[in-house]
């Protein structure tokens, strides 16, 4: 796994209110054709806003539980094979498999693991746009 976080996704209660808040802070919103999720460019990584319930459903967890925080850290990779390889590395290091890598409804490929403290990581290949260092871009 490369030493970077591509995306921090917050599970929010009110998407419209959260979008307005981060826009008022001056964060540049990525022009993305969706009313279900929002992205902001953080100059090297991204901030994602996703309804809390939908984020939990995507990860296959219930965020109402005390051991689950309503956010995920994402590590985006250049291919599906890389997602599978890094997932195997994480599991070998002691991670807990939450959701095996699989095709997504949004046209990508992703899976989730949690670290020893229960923090969720998403490993993803996003064929629509690259999130990460330019030298690793292979769409």
From TrEMBL:
<dbReference type="InterPro" id="IPR029068">
    <property type="entry name" value="Glyas_Bleomycin-R_OHBP_Dase"/>
</dbReference>
<dbReference type="Pfam" id="PF00903">
    <property type="entry name" value="Glyoxalase"/>
</dbReference>
<feature type="domain" description="VOC">
    <location>
        <begin position="4"/>
        <end position="126"/>
    </location>
</feature>
<dbReference type="InterPro" id="IPR004360">
    <property type="entry name" value="Glyas_Fos-R_dOase_dom"/>
</dbReference>
<protein>
    <submittedName>
        <fullName>Glyoxalase</fullName>
    </submittedName>
</protein>
<dbReference type="InterPro" id="IPR037523">
    <property type="entry name" value="VOC_core"/>
</dbReference>
